[in-house]
Amino acid sequence: MSLPATDRPYFRSRHLEFIVVGVLLLLLTVIFPLLNAHGLLSDFTITLWGKYLCYALLAISVDLLWGYTGLLSLGQALFFSLGGYMFGMYLMLQIGMLGSYAKSGQNPNGLPDFMVFLGHTFLPPFWRPFQSFGFSVLMVFVIPGLLALAFGFLAFRSRIKGVYFSILTQALTYGAALMFFRNDFTMGGNNGFTDFKLILGHSLVDNDTGPATMRGLFIASALVLLTVCLFCHWLNGTKFGLVRQAIRDGENRVLFSGYATANFKLFVFVVAAFIAAVGGALFVPQAGIINPDQMTPDKSIEAVVWVAVGGRGTLIGPIIGAISINALRSWATQAYPDSWLIILGLIFLLVVLFLPGGMVSLPGKIKALRKSQGKPVEPAVARA
Amino acid sequence: MSHPILTVEDVSKTYDGFKAISDLNFYLFEGELRTVIGPNGAGKSTFFDLITGRAKPDKGKIEFGFEPDSHDLTDLNEYEINRLGIGRKFQTPSVYVEHTVWDNLVLSLKGPRGVFASLFKRQSSTDRDRIADLLKLIRLDGKRDWKAGLLAHGEKQWLEIGMLLAQDSKVLLVDEPAAGMSDEETHRTGDLLISLAGKHSIIVIEHDMTFVKQIARDNPVTVLHQGHVLCEGKFEEVQSDPKVREVYLGRGKHGTR
Amino acid sequence: MVWKSFRPLLLCTLVVGVGLLADVRAMAAPETARATIVRAILTSDDAQKHTIINSLIGQGDEAIREIFTAWRQDNLYIYTAPNGAKIPVELTGDKDADGTQAAVRVDSGEPLKDASGQPLRLVAKQLTAVEHDASLRRVMKNVVDLLDLGSPLPAKRLRAVQTIGFAQKADKLPVLEARTGIETDTEIKKELREAIALIHLADPDDGVKIKALVVLQELHNSSSYDLINALRAKAEKDNKPAVTAAAHSALLAIDHHRSVVKFFGTLFRGLSAGSVLLVVALGLAITFGLMGVINMAHGEMITVGAYATYITQNVFGAGMNFTLPFIKIAIHLPGLHLTGWAYQLYFLVAIPIGFLSAALVGIALERSVIRFLYRRPLESLLATFGVSLILQQMFKLTFGSNNVNVDSPVYLSSNWTVFDVTFDWNRVFVIGFAVVIVFGVWLALTKTPLGLLIRCVMQNRMMASCMGVRTERVNMLTFGLGSGLAGLAGVFVTQLGTVGPSMGQEYIVDSFMTVVVGGVGSIFGTVVSALGIGLTDQSLQQILLNPVLGKILVLLAIILFLQWRPTGLFSARSRSLD
Amino acid sequence: MITKFSKLLGAGVIALSALVGSARAADTVKVGVLHDLSGTMAISETSLRDVLLFTFDEINAKGGVLGKKIVPVIVDPGSVWPAFAEKSKQLLEVDKVAVTFGCWTSVSRKSALPVFEKDNGLLFYPVQYEGEEESQNVCYTAEAVNQQAIPAVDFFIAQGKKKFYLIGTDYVYPQTTNLVLLEYLLSKGVPLANIGGGFVKDSSGKITNAGKYTPFGHKDYQQIIAEIKDFAASGDACVISTLNGDTNPPFFKEYAAAGLTADTCPVVSYSIAEDEFRSLPAKDLVGQIGCWTYFQSIDSPENAKFLAAFQAWLKTTKADGVVKEGRVVDSPMVLSYDGVYLWKACVEKAGSFDVDKVRAVWKSGISFVGPGGKVTTQPNMHLTKTVYIGESKADGQFKILKTFPDVYGEPHLKGTFKPKE
Lengths: 384, 257, 578, 421
Hints:
The structure holds 4 protein chains of 4 kinds. Chain A is an all-alpha fold. Chain A has helices spanning 10-37, 43-66, 76-95, 100-103, 113-117, 133-157, 162-181, 210-237, 239-256, 261-287, 297-310, 316-335, 340-354, 362-371; strands spanning 193-194, 198-199, 202-203, 289-290.
């Protein structure tokens, strides 16, 4: 019996996709730093691409929830930022006596500058352990993970789903942003954390050694991304992957098959929070700043859009989407400052309307179009 | 056959003032094949919803099993009830349309249901053999790599029955299994259900009277009307019961569709 | 002895102390009001200028009013006589061909004459103008206000009484007591009692003080709080338990009164905040609640309404020009150049215009984008997010990135004060507005054929379509209605907040929360949740004295609330969102 | 193998960038413009872009700087703060600009600053700010706290105001300004009870700051206005507002509706200049106080010339996205203008575009007579300039009430003022 062409390569396409992603990322991990070390690729480009890779991590976390599990979270930017803040606290404390207040002798305790600014004389207790790199990295996982666990537990237990889930996650991130905007919160208020100097003893700003540190961060980002892809690929192959997709397509059926879907969703939600948080933690030293603007609902929606544009429910889609939209932004804000938001908006609109599978579905579409020459093409219907 | 495996007593359920189930008493015995019929709106699907935890009764008790191993189902939710051994097939076929036929069965196969088990458990060769057997039984072995969404309506019904069998539940709740099937397929379904009785306890909801006749030959039939049991007995007794005739005929149709 | 009797006065507030010195000087060398003013004009030191003018308080000379009016209208100048003397003059009458005007001496009110006795005519530009600024004008106004004790206008009299009271000068007592005898207005009578009591507070005799405190306690007016508090602190220091106790109980009475005012004020403010939420969320309750479209461009529909109001205002006024972006079509809207009441009506005209323009934009959006997405609600979120970005940038390119100003019409820019609770007219209006549009929507949905069609299409599109309902058209009109309501909200929020290209973003999260808490699909739920959120928010602000913490708590409460009722207060079954 | 490939790829990248950069010529100098043209801050910063373009044209028409024509490189960070670091890096490392004019918000400056320090660039910053900063890579043409906040408070004290209500948006500039003002008011003998808005205390109960803070985009000022009304009931109260642009319309609309006026309780707003005034109901706000180092209404030949030239430029310019109608000028715009001329003067005196040389000239003290009067550079990278206090008129302009000439820009004010015993 012959099968429809689109369905037979179900497994094969998945492996192929992973191989493509893996090879590309490996190349990126090796070639970009090499070029940069030989002065053929500017430091600017390395840092820029390092940030794109972090955004790709954020996009994957969105895709894991939305593309694979059917949970449209509008709060992933929150976990990204929380990860960034946790690591940022470490970086802030590393500044120590290199800050401008310390230089002028007004800061004997080596507090972050913004605290001296607001009249603090001693470090708040919850800041103190962040002197340790290990502890900070642990917190990058623990804090976003705990928040995801608590929020997810409440939300999934009471079976909040669909639109309700989206709007609730939006409210969560909005509330958190308001919280972080407050200067009383001693997390830097609107200005957030900036002016990082050192990471694990390596300078971020020195003209001689700084580029090497940035290169290291780039390689770290690429490797983390590769690891996450490996993990996602593995997950797809397990029964867990099957259950997760089944939840997306028909949660009731899964419930009546004896699966506690809430636990599965909670697991995915926490894992997605981890991934976003790691992305944020790597983002902060490369971007040089983290502030509450990064956790507003808008930023979350943007990440969702990257995934939609790239192609959700795929491994490569979110990566392509995150990199291409951000590269477009870097270019268009300079070339068309007045109309680039319109360009961006139109892309969202057109992708949703005419290309629900995103950019990764383009080759298949073109192929199908060629094959069916003359025959009417089925209108695109997405999975709801 | 002495103990009821499923006990439903004095159960009522109201939706927005409409009494879907009122003071229902129902007992299912081990190994029994019970057919439930009743006009539209008699509360048949709500009855299943209450047993499977999709809806909670306003009052009454629903118990599964017998002492010392009995469970109050009203306190449990869907997946807990399923894990106790109650499987359900829905009225409209409910399969995972984006998964292959094979994966649909993998998901339903009896076994641990936890998050971590599903992460690390590998498929054993017994599992694969079991699925292959089931595929043959439901005659979908040629389409094992098809996405379930691409199957015909009848095939989906079969797949769902296969999924139910894969779960190996003690009690099977089967809601209109014959809808969308050809006469031949319907008959085969009937045979299958009859063959399952004894090993499993089964409740079948059905409209198709030919089908009911087939499966209820030696088995009791329950007639639901306005949320409670109108009468219970052998198919012929029920068919000749004046109350039943009034319920069906009064609505101008005799249950053949 | 004299020193002792004056001591409490000196220990009062700074102005009073300075005023006292001025009084002493006035007693030493009596001078006319005109002479005093001349002295004030010629003083270069600001503080001293204020002191001198303050010394005029209580004088009844009508010349003060005239001269001050001339001063405020920039008609006073300093004329330097040939002998070097500086003579303040008022230039009056029309300018002649050379630009000269008649000059009147401020010190005498007589025309300025040269050595030969001929009246001089002067050119304003050649003289030094007598300057004034806000604070000086305020001081002058105080003096004039005192003249207002006999004014026929109650508001003027009231203000005059207050001013005298705060000055706490015993020599004004007779004036006030005289007034008490003839005053008929109850409000002013109360104010007179307070003013007299306040002056008595400064009396050296403790008995008088305590009596005054009893009166003030009975009046429990917020404005006397600071003076009583100062008195209490002093009495405590001087170890006068009777005065301290009386002051304490007077303060308690005021505090109690304040908390009552705060309570009712908060109630009103909560109601009005809730009404604002309701007005902005009602459109969403239809597009999102009934139709299941997650319209992230809802905020931009509000912006359309707001800009429509802005355009209407400009057309009623001087007209406006703008260029449509990309197609570069310049649009010139001629102005009607209306003034007075005719101009003030612009806001009422803007209401239907705002509704219609937003409804039209909404219909265009529905036809071009939304109708393809009814079966994909989560994707409608993304598409409309794109639309929202595009619209914001369009507004920016059309109307500039600056915020624009929409004037408040006179009928919305004042307030009623009842028992010290302020009821702003714009706030009262928004409450009424909310009631009217909720009633209107209810009528439209339940009593009109369109409403019937809407409800039937929203419940089951397919079935309705099979029954011969033109679902496409109903979808379009429903979305238009929802957008139009957002436009109405836009018209109204011009009176409360910022009008600019991105203003819509400020309302979007709040709107969604309101609808979700109320229960998607239930208009009544939206009403209840809007008022509930508004009241909670304002009460928390009042309690925490911190607007942000209150808001965060409200969001937290909403998240927890949805744990308890995952589908909101009044859930209606909605297939599209399941 | 890999290195070979990498060199090939690198060569391609270089070729591409050379293609882009081929416009560079010997007789021009690249100058960066780093202002938000989209996003939330575009509302304020677009005007600065415009005035910078105007200034460049004006200088180019007279022969440029050291004989080189200024070529602006305009980038738009889009109100995304990490983008300020990214774009700064681009300007300094890719475009290699001689100087950059830019930033408005504190957070944007903080984001860009490390990049300028690392690459030894020069940033001209034109907007009133919180101080407590003295980077060698930033020329602060902006008003320091003592050039704005303190004079206005002195003005109110001279008017006999005794009660001060502090309100601001919750970010660094208002926080710091209020911190300094709290110290200043206490040093003037104002009791704590007469300072409204609340106090911030640390865990030991010590007061660390004062003021009521609302978030960006706050809309509902009902409760706060009620509080102010109660605070001002006894007369002699004023409000010191560091509310940020967008929150001013709802604040003042509520203020006016509640029946408060400049007579009963005046407001000084440090963030409202002529440009912001366009979005406010000016007729309800007559008599409110502003304090800047420039007002459009200044009556001087330099200002008249500047205004006329700017309006003429607006009419003829072909630059993209410049709104031509209803334009006003305000302090940040004039300080941007002054900044360009000061940079020009420094470059010409140094005879070089080299940042270190330009900075050395700046520190030696250079003067320029701009539209707001004479401005002089200081060794601490700030400017000495004239401070004006004005009251608003119904047409949205300010009438100048007081002038404080030659006020030295002092960024470090915290702890300067000691409470009066």
